């Protein structure tokens, strides 16, 4: 059994060579999985909000797309990953509830998180090679360091391998 | 200063607990009237926890739960989320609909069961907002409720993201609904938006 490292809400972790990074029950949060195949360096961030710049309390870097990606890259490069080789897979960003007849700023945060993720990765020139986002259901993700495989599990919406 | 649970002192906590207790009393009364039988609610526990610990407190991020979500607007605005594990939710719907809950065959919710749970969300929310109102004189109006059934972590991400804008901690209220010897555990999360928290504390004279 591979070593399992849990990445909770507003947290990020980096591992290399073997092991699995796991985020349980992603809803409107987004899991950003970065991978360097040559060194088998895998990083996973479980972000909650699109930008640290709009929020005063932004000490926790792993909570925001912009700072989480910076932080992941920094840690991965320290572990000998090369930025030019890093690719991304992303999952999550669902809208869990819909209020009839009203567009709620609160409830569409998932979509805004996904847009911010795409934009920030583009700024860093990191290609998104696979994506499973949106919808109205939760996802559990497992990111395997050995081969960069991202497994997405759901309740009632099947299993996907990205 | 923006409100943060990190700075919450024991006086605020006592007030929140008191509001929670009165809200639970109101809710038990309205439920009893609706069902024409006695429903009790125990003294709610107001808990404050770090995000990363919350899922464990509520028994794991992948637990299958039912969530009922509402927003409220007025003198104060914010959101409400009621979380029940699927079995409790099924049993409560049976109680609300006057069905036998000796046997629960599946974990899906029919349209009428969803309506019943949404109504429960309405009642608890009205009770809680009523308690805030009687304490502060502030009035606010809830939206229609909406329902989702999914992983606990996914359901919780909605209020957590809102708390996340101001804090790394969240507040929630744990209450048991009691029908004779049966207990149904519910978690009730109320999040006044940032300005509203200050409005409430000011109206209470502690802001």
Structure at a glance:
The complex is a heterodimer of chains A (162) and B (207). Helix content of chain A is 18%, strand content 34%.
Placed side by side, the strands forming the largest sheet of chain A appear as 1-3-8-9-10
What would you call the shape of chain A? globular
CATH top level assignment of chain B: Alpha Beta
The total count of strands of chain A amounts to 10
Explain what the structure shows.
The complex is a heterodimer of chains A (162) and B (207). Chain A has one domain: 60s Ribosomal Protein L30, Chain: A (2-Layer Sandwich). Chain A is built from two helices and ten strands, in the order βββββαβαββββ. Chain A has helices at residues 65-78, 109-123, and strands at residues 4-6, 11-16, 20-26, 30-36, 41-47, 87-92, 128-133, 139-144, 150-153, 159-161. A five-stranded mixed sheet of chain A has the order 1-3-8-9-10, with no helix packed on it. Chain A has a five-stranded mixed sheet with strand order 2-5-4-6-7, with helices on one face. The longest helix of chain A is centred in the last third of the chain and has 15 residues, at 109-123. Chain A is globular. The model of chain A has no long low-confidence stretch (mean pLDDT 92). Chain B has one domain (5-203): 3-Layer(aba) Sandwich (Chemotaxis protein chec), CATH 3.40.1550.10. The longest helix of chain B is centred in the N-terminal third of the chain and has 26 residues, at 10-35. In chain B, 45% of the residues are buried. The interface between A and B is medium-sized, with 34 and 35 residues.
Topology:
The complex is a heterodimer of chains A (162) and B (207).
Chain A: E1 4-6, E2 11-16, E3 20-26, E4 30-36, E5 41-47, H1 65-78, E6 87-92, H2 109-123, E7 128-133, E8 139-144, E9 150-153, E10 159-161
Parallel strand pairs in A: 1-3, 6-7
Antiparallel strand pairs in A: 2-5, 3-8, 4-5, 4-6, 8-9, 9-10
Chain B: H1 10-35, E1 40-41, E2 45-50, H2 51-57, E3 64-74, E4 78-85, H3 86-97, H4 111-136, E5 140-142, E6 146-151, H5 152-164, E7 169-179, E8 182-192, H6 194-203
Antiparallel strand pairs in B: 1-7, 2-7, 3-4, 3-5, 3-6, 4-8, 7-8
Helix pairs in contact in B: 1-4, 3-4
